[in-house]
Structure formats: structure tokens, C-alpha cells
Design a protein that fits this description.
alpha+beta; OB fold (Dihydrolipoamide Acetyltransferase, E2P); 8 helices; about 55% helix; elongated
């Protein structure tokens, strides 16, 4: 009799254990976990991050096109969604990534040339990437690869997009309020001359020096219309300028 009762108790405990742990095991082996495991594999996660960062760089250059923005959102969204589906903590890395993007946006659009926000933004995105991987060396390698890919992609866009009829319409230009005056050559512009931007410099544009409109290009930073610039280099008809200090 006691053996029967002991057997019944063992069976009851086994059933209760299955009822408690069964759903958790099913959830852990469900489609969410499988998708999460696939997206968190270092090659897949690294590819998503690289595509997302390159698309962000393209979104800055072709501001308002929509294609680059959607690509960046999908790639980075899948990068963090994979970790969420895999049951990993994503909130700290996600906060660092978003904070880094905000700092980079301030550096590019609000306070160009300051440098501090750019460095903080890159460190924030880098720290977020490292925290998303179990091995910090893998995370650092993925981040550096994404950074190099973004730099190469941005250089390629700057070099080839203005000459490509297919993508020329993607670059946002402010419509002129009056018929534009042809820009003059740079033979009368000297190093140290100070002028004002007649159009946004992204990085090329037009600046006015003592009533003369001159085609200019920055050293890489974006400068808004109406900001003062100083000539730092003149190479034939190529005039290189930078923003004068002390501007908001």
C-alpha cells in the first residue's frame, strides 16, 4: 500500500513538474527563439549592423530620400529585435545606440565642427555594439567594420552620386527664392577671405565674398545657409572653406 502511495506521489510530482516547465521549454524552442538565435549569430548580426550604419550615412547625404532611412530602420531594428527575441537584455545597449545617434545628429545638423558630440556619439554606438555580443572582441570587430564601411560608403556617395542622373534627385537642395546668379571663378578669392554661405554646403555649395558668388567646398562638415566661412585653401578654381568660430 505504501509503495502504491509513493508511486502516486512520484507520478503527481512528475506531472506538476511537466506542467510548470513544459510551457517554458516550448517557448524556448518556439519560432521566436529560433528567429532570435538566427539574428544573434555574429555573422548575421554583424551584417545587419554594417548595413544599418552604412544606410544611416547614406541617409545623411541623401537627406529626405526615404530609401536609406527605411533601410537603416529595418536593419538596426532587426539587429536589436533578434536580441529581444533571444531573451537578452537590450535596453541599455538600445539607449546607448539611440543616444549616440542623437549626439551625431547634433554634431552634423546643429553644431557642425564642434567635434565633442561626434566623439560621444561614436563611443555610444560602439559601446552599444560591444554590449550586444557575448565576446567584447567580436563586438569591437563588428563595430569597427561597420564604421569603416560607413566611411567608405559615404566617400563613394560623395564622389559618384552628383554625377549619376539616377541619384541626383535624391540630394535635397533648397529651392532658390530668386533666379540664381552665376558663381564666379576663384581667382580673386584669397586664403583668409571671409564670406557668407548663399546656399547650404553639403559639402559643396556657393558662398558670397564681397558681392561675388563663388563655388566652394568644405573640408567635410555640413554648413548651413547664412553661416560665415573662411577660405583655408585655393587650388585653381577649387576653394576650400571652413566655418568661422563663434557661430551658433
Amino acid at each position: 500500500m505504501r509503495g502504491v502511495l509513493a508511486g502516486d506521489r512520484l507520478l503527481l510530482l512528475t506531472v506538476l513538474s511537466f506542467l510548470v516547465s513544459g510551457p517554458a521549454l516550448a517557448e524556448g524552442t518556439g519560432w521566436k527563439a529560433q528567429v532570435g538565435d538566427f539574428l544573434t549569430q555574429p555573422p548575421v548580426a554583424g551584417a545587419l549592423l554594417i548595413v544599418g550604419v552604412v544606410a544611416l550615412a547614406a541617409a545623411v547625404i541623401t537627406l529626405g530620400s526615404g530609401v536609406a532611412e527605411v533601410t537603416a530602420f529595418c536593419a538596426i531594428g532587426l539587429f536589436f529585435a533578434g536580441r529581444y527575441l533571444a531573451g537578452e537584455d537590450i535596453w541599455v545597449p538600445l539607449a546607448l545606440f539611440v543616444g549616440g545617434l542623437i549626439c551625431l545628429a547634433l554634431e552634423i545638423f546643429v553644431l557642425p565642427g564642434v567635434g565633442v558630440f561626434g566623439v560621444i556619439g561614436i563611443l555610444g554606438i560602439g559601446g552599444s555594439t560591444v554590449l550586444c555580443f557575448d565576446n567584447w572582441e567580436t563586438g569591437l570587430t563588428v563595430f569597427l567594420s561597420a564604421l569603416c564601411a560607413a566611411m567608405l560608403g559615404g566617400f563613394a556617395l560623395f564622389k559618384f552620386l552628383p554625377e549619376n542622373r539616377l541619384f541626383r534627385g535624391l540630394i535635397v537642395l533648397e529651392p532658390p527664392v530668386s533666379p540664381p546668379t552665376p558663381a564666379v571663378v576663384s581667382s580673386k578669392v584669397e586664403i583668409g577671405s571671409v564670406g557668407v554661405c548663399s546656399s547650404p554646403l553639403r559639402p559643396g555649395g556657393i558662398a558670397e565674398f564681397e558681392g561675388r558668388r563663388v563655388d566652394v567646398v568644405t573640408e567635410g562638415a555640413f554648413i548651413a545657409k547664412g553661416h560665415y566661412v573662411e577660405v583655408v585653401s585655393v587650388q585653381g578654381n577649387k576653394v576650400v572653406v571652413r566655418a568661422t568660430p563663434g557661430q551658433d
